[in-house]
Specification:
The chain has 5 helices and no strands. With 124 residues, it is mostly helical. The longest helix is centred in the last third of the chain and has 33 residues, at 91-123.
């Protein structure tokens, strides 16, 4: 690993946080799925506030939302790397992208289940 790479990797907390903010900004600008997920997350948080569950339900909803957004970011990153390294269609690249998409889908199903269970617990 080059010295420049090590310096970047081992930078201070503020520097590493700036890379994360840059990544979030890139995702917001270039990834419609991330924007849709983020907007849906705000709606889910507002609905959770209306329901007014206890701290445990809040923690579960927030954790599921963060997991969903994090997987969406990883999926976008994987797709970017795949497209850069192998821009042509290839079955293995397609499978890698599909698997990452399936991970996002699975987390989103889990998020919806957490939300429905929270609703059922508090409204029934």
């Amino acid at each position: 690993m080059t010295e420049a790479c090590l310096a970047q990797k081992n930078g201070g907390l503020l520097r590493r946080a700036s890379y994360a903010m840059k990544g979030l900004a890139t995702a917001w600008r270039s990834e419609r799925a991330f924007r849709d997920q983020a907007i849906a997350s705000v709606v889910l948080l507002a609905l959770t506030a209306v329901v007014g569950p206890g701290a445990l339900w809040w923690a579960l909803v927030v954790l599921a939302i963060c997991g969903s957004l994090a997987l969406e970011l990883l999926n976008a990153g994987l797709e970017s790397v795949c497209d850069r390294l192998h821009p042509e269609m290839h079955p293995m690249i397609g499978a890698a992208k599909d698997l990452a998409s399936a991970a996002v889908f699975t987390m989103n199903v889990g998020l919806k289940l957490v939300f429905v269970l929270m609703l059922a617990t508090h409204l029934l």
